Prior knowledge:
By secondary structure, this protein is an alpha+beta fold. The chain has one helix at 3-19, and strands at 31-33, 42-44, 60-62, 68-70. The longest helix has 17 residues, at 3-19.
Amino acid sequence: MNEAQLRDEICRVGQSLFNRGYVHATAGNISVRLETSEGGGFLITPTDACLGFLDPARLARVDASGQQVGGDRASKTL
């Protein structure tokens, strides 16, 4: 999957978990490692974000060393 597809998938999974009652409010986070061909690093849900209402464009992106390079502030459990 490319980065755009992964962003959509994180949001889809977050909404599914929320709708089924597995997470509530701002509990939990979701992350994925990006392939080197996609620039490497990770996508992670933002800190204090509700998994049921994620915006793909606002997901945090961090490089391989954990430094934020885009999006909203990464989850505090980074």
